[in-house]
Each structure stands twice: as C-alpha cells, then as structure tokens.
Amino acid sequence: MADGPTQPRSLEDLISNGYAVQPFNYLEEGWQAFRNYPLGFIAFALVFIVISQALPLLTPVFGQLLSIAVQVIMMAGIAMATWGQLRNRTSTFADFFPDWETVGRLVVSTVLALLLIAAGLLLFVLPGIYLIVAYSFSYMLIADRHLGAWQALEASRRVVTRNWWGIFWLTGVMLLLIMGGGIFGAALLGFPLGYVLTGYFPEVSLDDLPLVLPETGAQVNLGMMVGLLSGTMIGGGLGIALSGCMFGAAYADIFGLASPPPQTA
Predict the structure, then answer these.
(1) For residues 86 and 6, what is the distance between their CA atoms, to the nearest angstrom?
(2) What does the mean pLDDT of the chain come to?
(3) Which residue among 43, 117, 217, 241 is least enclosed by CB atoms within 10 Å?
C-alpha cells in the first residue's frame, strides 16, 4: 500500500497477457484502507443499506430495481474512497460520492446487467452465473475510467473472462465477508440488544409485519426482532465496507488507476 496503486493497464494488455488474482493481498490492502477511516466506511455503507432496504417497501417492483442500483452506487463509492487511501491521501466523507453523471451511468449499467443476467439465468442458468462474475468490475470502470454503461460491462466481461475462476473465488471471499459480518453483528450486538428490548416491545405475528414471507401464524417478540435486525445490519455494513475495500484494492492492482486524485486547495 505504501507504493500506491499500479499504473493503468490497457484492456488489450489485460486480455492478451492476463493477470494474477491475489485475494489475500487484496484483503490485507482493503483492511489497511478500511482501518484508516473505519467510521466513514461503516457510516456510508449503513446509510446506503437503509436506503436500499427501504425502497422495496415503498414500491415493491420498481423499488427492487432501485435498491440494486443503490447498492451498486454504494460499492462504487467505497471503491473510490479506497483508491484515495491507496494513494496515501486523507479521506473525507465526500470521497464516497460519485458525480451525477457517474451515478447515471451506474444506474444504466445496473439495469442492462440485470436484464442480461436474468435472461441467462432463465434460459440456461450457467450463462447467468458467468455474467454475474464477469460484470464484477463494471461499476469501477465507470467510476475510474469514466466508460459508458455498455462499454464498462463489455470491458469487465472481456477482462474477467481471461481469469474467470480467479475472480469467481475473489467474489466468493467478498460474499463470505458480508455474510460473516451479518452473523457476527447478530451474535455480538443483535442478541444482547434484542434481549434488552424484549421488555419494551410486545409479541406480534409475523403475518402482520411487512415481510415477504408465507403466512405461518408464528409469534415473535418485536424487541428481539428489532435487536437482531439492527445487529445484522450493522455487522453486514461492516462486511460490505471491508469487502468493498478489498474489491477496490483488487481493481487497483489488476487494472491500475486511471483517474487522477482530486486536487486539494
């Protein structure tokens, strides 16, 4: 991390000559970036998690699409802040937010990717799985190299295809971090908080809550549920922030960083 990110490599070079994938190195660099500004990374992730979870409740169908787009914007923001850390700059909360043009491209790329992935999953399943992994770097190509939505998707697909299994395992580590963070948060924070809240909240039926679940008639204590959900969300935010830092470090190593750091006054 002290040496900074690598110089940008052309897409043709990456496709022709390939690249190595080093998950544990990326995890170490991501952790170093995260620990330099932990409150910023966690706060940013939590804000966007709350927004992404609220949108489907407001408008079930369109909200699901918006929720995924918000998550993509969140991951782009985490990557951008990580790149600043890799350049040995002091991060501010503003570093997490891309400009509106980039946001628009991220939304368009999300819609295109979802359509193609859904088609692949519905038709043959395996093409959909291939595309999920292949599009892993598309949002960072938009944020860093300012590519158009379709250009970024195709560039990511072509480069990832050169070492698809390496990126597949990297994606697996990312998912483990997110799930592990959620479980850790539920166990360490959720259960104690839920236990405290049980005396202040009533028993309710799961069927009365705004959850997409089949009717069961099961009764739960609302306080315990609030505690568990809060702990899971906070732990998940930690996992998302750390995994986003790891993926940002992976992009910086594989692609190099094209965008210059912001000018300081």
Answers:
(1) 10
(2) 87
(3) 217
Residue with tokens 């910086």: 252
User: What pLDDT digit, counting tens, does each position of 189-231 carry?
Assistant: 888 988 888 877 777 665 566 555 556 666 777 788 888 888 8
Number of domains in the chain: 1
Reading phi first (left if > 0) and then psi (alpha if -120 to 50, else beta), residue 125 is in: left
Question: Rounded to two decimals, what is the model's pTM?
Answer: 0.87
Beta carbons of 130 and 120 less than 8 angstroms apart: yes
Q: What confidence tier does 104 reach under pLDDT thresholds 50, 70, 90?
A: very high
Calculate the alpha carbon distances from 132 to 34, 57, 116, 121, 129 in Å. 25, 25, 9, 10, 5
| Residue closest to 225 by CA, chosen among 248, 204, 208 | 204
Side-chain-side CA neighbours of 170 within 13 Å: the count stands at: 29
Assess if residue 79 is contained within a domain.
yes
Residue-number span of the structural domain to which 109 is assigned: 11-254
**Structure confidence by residue, pLDDT tens digits, 141-156:** 999 999 999 999 999 9
Q: Is the dihedral of CA 171, 174, 176, 179 positive or negative?
A: negative
Residue 244 tokens, joined: 């986003």
Supply the angle between the helices 149-162 and 100-123 in degrees, to the nearest 10. 60
